[in-house]
Amino acid sequence: MRIPRHVRGGLGGRFMIIVVVIVGLAAYWFSNQKEGLVTGRKQMITIGLEEEVQMGFQAYSELLQTEPVLCGRGANTCSVEDGETVRAIQEVGRRIAQAAIDWEAEGAPMTVLGEETARLPPWGSLADKFDWSFNVIQSDTPNAFCLPGGYVAFYTGILPTAANIDGVAVIMGHEVGHALARHGAERVSQQKLMQIGQMAAGAAIGDMPVAQQRMIMGAMGAGAQFGVLLPFSRAHESEADMIGLELLVRACYDPREAPLLWGRMVELGGGERPPEILSTHPDPEARMTRFEEVMPQAIAVYERRCGPLPAR
Ligand SMILES: [Zn+2]
Prior knowledge:
The chain is mainly α and about 300 residues long. It has 9 helices and 5 strands; from the N terminus they run αββααβββαααααα.
């Protein structure tokens, strides 16, 4: 089909604006990259730690007001059994948090990745500034998370999959790992950038036919989803796995439980609707391979710090 000359000119001009905006955003992106995470990946974070912790605090306060907190302040009853569950989870949380604080104070590298190749945790001292809090939510949903600032929520629905105290520690370590690596802040920064890009593109194509606008915005959105957000969330998951493993052996929990726990989690996802905690988690085989690779080192670190592992 031949496009009339004046239309082509208009499209070309707008196309240039979109290109300029994308180049500008890319430049901004790279200029905000921070040097090396534990895995060597660079991060773009454009919000301050205080803002991030404030966001975590706000979300956590709302959660505690709307969800039933097991043996919490507003709870009518607290059976002996529930009380024990809450205390056990809080104990795991405190040990993992203390391990993070000591790790930062030591300035030690990721020992589970091997002393030579490992990097120092790049976030400096973060764990000692967190306002650590551990609450158990009475809910069938299999879920757990740690918000920026160290605000942890553990749903009772995940306890059957956790299966034992080491399993609880694997989940706790992984979730705390996300918070320490500031994955939340990174995600917010990404989304801000995407919004700016889409707004700019929207302005540039504002008087195009609606169908064409939709096509361009759709392509941009899909590009962002599959090019940036999805691979990033996979990178986040494997980073959280490795930071979690480090915290696990530092807090003297059995590292051999980590691949077992994630194996049980995959089975849990076998139903038609995968639980939230699984939605962005990496391909299970790649994850198992990674755990197998680092397990001898993780066991060695455990045994050096905590004594021999029990026979299994
Ligand atoms: Zn995760």
